[in-house]
Amino acid sequence: MGYTLIKNGTLIDGTGSNRVENAGVLLNDNQIESVGLLTDITIPDKDVQIIDAQGGFILPGFIDTHVHMVMEIKDIRESLNTPFAFKFYEAIGYMRRTLDAGITSVRDAGFTDLGVKLAVEKGLVTGPRMQLSINPLTIIGGHGDSWMRSGIDTTPKSYPGMPSGICDGAEQVRQKVREMLRAGAEIIKVHATGGVMSPTDHPEFTQYSQQELEIIVEEATFRRGIKVMAHAQGAAGIKNAVRAGIHSIEHGIYLDEEAIELMLENGTYLVPTLLAPISVVEASELNESMPEYAVQKAREVVEAHRESIMRAYKAGVKIAMGTDAGVMAHGSWHKLERAWINV
């Protein structure tokens, strides 16, 4: 690739340092070699590609810690009539929109397999760097099990590279962690509570016991300290996850004071995904793509979610940016600003 120089912009480096006007960034292949005032950068006596920032801002790439790169919620009727492989081609557009929005690294919270990551790394398609969880672990009848009471099961089918995540009990959860790791998981995702988008549960329902969650954490840790992220919305499930040693709580809708104290004691991260329930409600006002059970639960949790995140933020819980893109359109993370204004 050679050298690339980005110039004629104002640098904000993300460390809290003062911005640098008339800045430059010199890259050698994919590595930053020099950054600062343009006049202080030694430009090599070689062919250098010049990118003119045109007086704009030069920023590091952003990290979205909660996305679903091969998914974007649509009307179930459309999904049922769409060929299986079509989603991989749709994902090319999702990844492009993600990059165009300034997100260059993502933690995929489910449903993206190792082949997609390799396609990006090999240059076959353009996309962000990815940390994969493969498929979230969940219980029968829990968040992620889309069996309908009609008897129709709309849960996405497993395939080579995407093992089923449904498991119950100590031995099954241990086995499923091993299956996800074998398939290429770099982080393990578990659903510690119910959720908004699932048909037969509720965000406050607790899914796994603390013992089961501890087994999941133990099995992941055996692989050179691989971490576990937990979809956790109800207070009891959040506390089970934190006590079990889980690295990050995703969503955190019903945080109580005890849960916040536990997160502070254990250094647990919170990924609020404030846009997720808001996006479900907004989508329901535009069309019929959202199932009624999801819309009802989303309306119920929006205010509680906001209040929980506000308390956690004021208490000093460590917070990471995550959108839950896939529940809403990829590349729309800028809407987070609106959500955080009210926190």
UniProtKB/TrEMBL annotation:
Residues 57-326 form the Amidohydrolase-related domain. InterPro entries: Amidohydro-rel, Metal-dep_hydrolase_composite, Metal_Hydrolase, Metallo-dep_Hydrolase, OTAase-like. It comes from the Bacteria. One of its GO terms (molecular function) is hydrolase activity, acting on carbon-nitrogen (but not peptide) bonds. The keyword Cell membrane does not apply. Keywords: Hydrolase. This is Imidazolonepropionase-like amidohydrolase. It comes from Planomicrobium soli.
